[in-house]
Specification:
The complex is a heterodimer. Chain A is α/β, with parallel strands linked by helices. Chain A contains 9 helices and 9 strands. In chain A, helix 2 (85-95) packs across helix 3, helix 2 (85-95) runs parallel beside helix 4 (130-142) and helix 3 crosses helix 4 (130-142). The longest helix of chain A is centred in the middle third of the chain and has 16 residues, at 160-175. The longest helix of chain B has 32 residues, at 179-210. Helix content of chain B is 73%, strand content 0%. The chains are: A alpha/beta, B mainly alpha. The structure holds adenosine-5'-diphosphate (ADP) and magnesium ion.
């Protein structure tokens, strides 16, 4: 469980006006949740991630955590520095004080969970492709064996194949009992994957709740499926586009209309 | 330490110092540094200090802002001063004088960066040294290098912070452990820094070439022009250097 109580945060400034980047934010996330955080650029998503994992301390308010939180930063591949993939992933476990043997087996497991097999272990991570580097970096975070994982825009810059396997990985992580929190500005990714949604606007929580409830309440959060349903509605089909949040919802709605007429 | 680098960052302000021609300021800093090296007495050191203080006041950059970015350097200076005091006979006096002069050099050059945009500095260097073109010196390229170096300081500082954050969340603790462990820890920040700096440099080079950098003599958007303020400033600069030289000659 992780709970925020009236958390505010401003970056230290050079004597000029201080702006609250996070402004009186309160919400709580249950164990084994799959949560999405969305909002415009500059709305404070990254800052919130850093607060959640403890890289930043709130200026006021409290963050209560049960369990450890690990953060995969945006473009995590910039953290890679060792000369073999395996050593780089072992960096975290070793820092946590695990003995070498154990660190190695943890690292091997997390590399396999991101789909990199033994043939990658001894390669130089800096010479891998962009998607492979991203996987190595994510494995480095997964190897921390935390209870809550925060991913800041994990899908940015990945092609669609990598993108799908990334979300498969996140679901596997969630199925294994971990809490997964992702930041994304793709409302489609969030609608398809997250059960809970935090909608940030200028550092405030503009809305919080079940993804399927929150999304229809905001015009700016319209998914592609909803846009498609709205087009169908404007063409005369009797369909409630606010119910077509995901592709599956849309398919079900259309199927039920077709059955009804048939 | 890397978390708040103000060294070399421009501070926007509308002041006498900010609006001076960059050539004037470059010349001023050069003369100040020359003056600092010439002066070896307490009195001339204090005189230089007063001049710099006047400049800081004229530039209307908050002193707190200036000093904040210099803290690591002050730590370094303190160590050097202590070593001086311990190792050199009659060291206390010399240590203070030397540290004072280093601080003066740092303040003078820092003031230049705080009051002048990197673009202006490179423009000033280029225009001021344009006569060297006849000696086949690539003045424009050198000026571009200087200006890019300055623009990259805050970008690289930001990058360092990002990487430090990433490694910290992987359990890196810079404060823990002995020397070996600390060295190992800094490697995990320095190597990604090099990787990203080299990547940036490559991207920038390609971007510049694809926009025809080096295909001819570029024209200027803001050609430099001296004003009366600059004339006044030059008078002050020359007077300063003259006074310092006279102090030296007069053993004051
Ligand atoms: N290190 C920093 N220092 C000062 N201000 C910052 C810093 N990082 C972010 N900000 C400011 O905080 C606000 C929120 O930034 P961020 O959390 O990165 O937003 P998002 O991730 O939603 O795009 C922005 O206005 C940004 O300018
Ligand atoms: Mg962000």
């Amino acid at each position: 469980m992780i709970e925020l109580r009236n958390v505010s945060f401003s970056y230290p400034s050079d004597g000029r006006q201080q702006v609250k980047v996070i402004d009186d934010v309160s919400f709580s996330i249950q164990d084994n949740g799959f949560v999405g955080i969305t909002g415009k650029i500059g709305s404070g998503k990254t800052t919130l991630c850093k607060l959640l994992c403890g890289l930043l301390k709130p200026s006021s308010g409290q963050i209560l955590k049960e369990g450890r939180v690990a953060l995969a930063m945006q473009f995590p591949e910039s953290q890679i520095f060792e000369n073999t993939v395996l050593k780089d992933v072992m960096f975290g476990p070793l820092n946590m004080g695990l003995p070498e043997e154990q660190a190695r087996s943890v690292a091997e497991k997390s590399l396999e969970s991101v789909g990199l097999d033994g043939s990658f272990f001894d390669r130089n991570p800096l010479r891998l492709s962009g998607g492979e580097k991203r996987r190595v970096a994510l494995a480095g975070v997964l190897a921390l064996n935390a209870d809550i994982y925060v991913f800041d825009e994990p899908a940015t810059g990945l092609d669609s194949r990598w993108h799908d396997s990334l979300f498969e990985l996140l679901h596997r992580l969630n199925d294994s009992g971990k809490t997964v929190i992702i930041v994304s500005h793709s409302i489609d990714d969030i609608a398809e994957n997250c059960r809970t949604l935090v909608y940030l606007e200028d550092g405030k929580v503009a809305d919080f709740g079940n993804t399927a409830d929150v999304i229809p309440r905001h015009r700016s959060l319209e998914t592609r499926a909803m846009g498609f349903a709205r087009r169908l509605a404007s063409e005369g089909m009797e369909i409630d586009y606010t119910k077509a949040v995901t592709r599956k919802d849309l398919a079900d709605l259309i199927a039920s209309r077709i059955q009804f007429q048939g | 330490m890397i978390r708040d680098v103000t060294l070399g960052r421009y501070y926007r302000q509308d002041s006498f110092v900010h609006t001076l021609d960059p050539r004037t300021k470059l010349c001023g800093v050069a003369f100040l540094i020359a003056g600092i090296f010439i002066s070896s007495s307490v009195i001339s050191c204090i005189f230089t200090m007063l001049c710099i203080a006047a400049l800081v006041w004229l530039s209307r950059v908050p002193l707190r802002y200036m000093v904040k970015g210099l803290l690591p350097i002050f730590v370094f200076l303190a160590v050097v001063a202590v070593l001086n005091i311990i190792l050199v006979p009659n060291g206390v006096f010399r240590a203070i004088l030397i540290s004072l002069r280093v601080v003066e050099v740092i303040f003078a050059s820092n003031l230049l960066c705080l009051s002048t945009r990197p673009r202006e500095i490179s423009n000033g260097v280029e225009t001021g040294f344009s006569w060297m073109r006849h000696l086949k010196v690539p003045v424009h390229d050198l000026a571009t290098i200087v200006s890019i170096a300055f623009t990259f300081i805050p970008i690289l500082a930001e990058e360092a912070r990002r990487i430090l954050d990433a490694q910290t969340s992987r359990g890196l603790d810079m404060r823990k452990g002995g020397l070996v462990k600390k060295t190992k820890a800094s490697v995990s920040v320095i190597i990604p820094m090099f990787v990203s700096a080299i990547e940036r440099a490559e991207n920038l080079a390609v971007a510049m070439e694809s926009r025809l950098y080096g295909c001819g003599e570029p024209t200027r958007l803001h050609p430099l022009k001296y004003s009366y303020d600059d004339a006044a400033a030059y008078v002050c600069i020359f007077t300063y250097l003259l006074v310092v030289i006279l102090m030296k000659v007069g053993r004051l």
